Amino acid sequence: xxxxxWFERWKKQEIGFHQADINPYLHQFWHELxxxxxxxxxxxxxxxxxxxxxxxxxxxxxxxVELSPTxxxxxxxxxxxxxxxxxxxxxxxxxxxxxRILCGDFFDLEREDLQAVKAVYDRAALIALPPEMRKRYxxxxxxxxxxxxxxxxxxxxxxxxxxxxxxxxxxxEEVKSLYGAQVEIRLLERSGVLAxxxxxxERGLNHLHENVFLIKRISAAES
Length: 223
Hints:
Strand content: 25-35%
Strand order of the largest sheet: 3-4-5-2-1-6-7-9-8
CATH class: Alpha Beta
CATH architecture: 3-Layer(aba) Sandwich
CATH superfamily: Vaccinia Virus protein VP39
C-alpha cells in the first residue's frame, strides 16, 4: 500500500475510519494499563483522532505519528489550537500543550523517538495495513519501544473475502503470531458489532467482531 493512497483518502475526505467520538473501548479498558499521570502514550497512524485529547485529559503527554499533513493540520484546527512547528529528523513536528504529532512515515521512527513511551494505543494502525505490511509494522514497533511498554490494541475481524480493506480483518490468532514471544497478550473483549455498523453490512459482511487486547512488552528486541 503506497503513501499516495492515504494522501488521496485525506484529500477527498474519504475517512470513514475516523471516529468523531472517544472510542468506548479506550474509556472502558485504559485503566488496565495502570499508567500514571505523566506517562507518555504513543498513538501510531493517529490521524485527527479525538482519542488523543482524551488521553491528554487523563494527564498523559501524547506522541502521535501520522503520514498525512492534512490530517495533522485538521487535528489542531478542529481543537482550536495553533501548534508550534519544527523539524525533527525525517519528521515535521507539530506540538501544542502536551500533544506532539510527528508528520511522516511510521517506518522512519527511531528508538530515540519513542524512548519516553510507556504505552501505545493502536486503534487504527494495524488494521489499516495489508498483510504484507503488518509483520513489518509490528517488528518495527517492537524494535523501537522501550522494554516494559504496553499496547492497548483494537482490531476488527470479519471474513476478509467478503470485503476489501482497509480496514482489514486481523484475527486474534494473527495478533499472537505477529507479536510472538516478545509479549504477554490478554484478550480483554470480543464483541459482535455488525448490527451497530450498517455500512459494513452494506458492503457484504455477514459478521463483524471487535477484539481488544492488552499487550505487554517484555523485553527490548535485538538490534
